[in-house]
């Protein structure tokens, strides 16, 4: 039997066991259990607990070919044991995830299972509905359909805003909803996320391009850009 045929008949547990031997040579292979779960996001988890390895893989990958499962095994086991992830395995996995059909499946799963937990757009200091309308007319001729808007439940400094295309929702960090934060900064963060609606993420050769050239050019049109970025630095 050739190698390709052998791989075809391997179970997922056998694939992970074989990769384990490569990641941790001269180490006995512990019991390994692999199962697919209905996660809201395309995540996969791995745990080493009580001498056993438990792998939970998103069911988005339930029909993925064996080489993709093997690449995922390399990614998960390498991270579990703090080893460098082989570049070719990581690239193969990323290219599969970025395939159009897989991205569409992920998008559908997020819509069906995911729920956005946000507070109302009317905050204590700023009203995101009002700011969106002002920015829409100022920069987009009033033509951008309003997404769902809201403040985050936590006061995050690391992520001040994000746009979720699966739920067509813009969320700004609650930390910005304060009289101590200048309005120009809130407008800039909201404007940045609005640009993600106008310029969706592009996929090029298995790579995600979030801030395209057109995106960056449009962002430079923001009035008082330097003032906004200075305020951002002070907040950071």
Describe the structure in your own words:
This protein has helices at residues 3-9, 12-23, 66-80, 87-97, 100-113, 128-139, 183-198, 213-219, 225-235, and strands spanning 32-37, 44-49, 52-58, 148-151, 161-164, 169-172, 202-204, 207-209. The strands form 3 sheets. A 3-stranded mixed beta sheet has the order 1-3-2, covered by helices on one side. Strands 4-6-5 form a 3-stranded mixed beta sheet, covered by helices on one side. The N and C termini lie far apart (59 Å). The radius of gyration is 22 Å and the shape is elongated. Helix 2 packs across helix 3 (66-80) and helix 7 crosses helix 9 (225-235). The chain contains 9 helices and 8 strands. A hairpin with a 4-residue loop joins strand 5 (161-164) and strand 6. The model is unreliable at 1-7 (pLDDT under 50).
Give the topology.
Elements: H1 3-9, H2 12-23, E1 32-37, E2 44-49, E3 52-58, H3 66-80, H4 87-97, H5 100-113, H6 128-139, E4 148-151, E5 161-164, E6 169-172, H7 183-198, E7 202-204, E8 207-209, H8 213-219, H9 225-235
Parallel strand pairs: 1-3, 4-6
Antiparallel strand pairs: 2-3, 5-6, 7-8
Give me some keywords for this one:
236 residues; alpha/beta; Zincin-like; 2 domains; three-stranded mixed beta sheet; 9 helices
């Amino acid at each position: 039997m050739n190698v390709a045929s052998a791989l075809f008949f391997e179970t997922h547990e056998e694939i992970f066991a074989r990769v384990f031997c490569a990641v941790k040579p001269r180490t006995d292979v512990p019991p390994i259990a692999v199962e697919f779960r209905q996660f809201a996001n395309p995540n996969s988890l791995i745990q080493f607990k009580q001498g056993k390895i438990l792998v939970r893989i998103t069911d988005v990958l339930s029909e993925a070919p064996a080489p993709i499962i093997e690449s995922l095994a390399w990614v998960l086991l390498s991270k579990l044991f703090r080893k460098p992830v082989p570049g070719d395995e990581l690239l193969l996995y990323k290219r599969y995830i970025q395939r159009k059909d897989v991205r569409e499946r992920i998008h559908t799963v997020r819509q069906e299972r995911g729920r956005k937990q946000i507070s109302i757009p009317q905050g204590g200091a700023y009203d995101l509905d009002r700011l969106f309308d002002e920015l829409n007319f100022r920069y987009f001729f009033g033509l951008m359909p309003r997404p769902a808007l809201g403040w985050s439940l936590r006061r995050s400094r690391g992520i001040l805003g994000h746009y979720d295309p699966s739920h067509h929702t813009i969320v700004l960090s609650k930390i910005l909803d304060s009289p101590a934060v200048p309005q120009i900064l809130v407008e800039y963060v909201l404007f940045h996320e609005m640009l993600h609606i106008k310029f969706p993420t592009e996929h090029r050769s298995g790579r995600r391009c979030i801030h395209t050239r057109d995106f960056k050019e449009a962002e430079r049109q923001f009035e008082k850009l330097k003032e906004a970025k200075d305020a951002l630095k002070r907040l950071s």
